[in-house]
Amino acid sequence: MRNAWNRNAAYVVEKALLYGTPDDRDALASEFLVNSSGDLAALARSQFGSMVMRALLRLPGPSTQKLQELLSTSAAVAQLRATKHGRRLLDDHGLGLSAHTSRGGGGAGGGSVLAAPAA
Question: For 7, 12, 41, 95, which has the most beta carbons within 10 A of its beta carbon?
Answer without folding.
Answer: 41
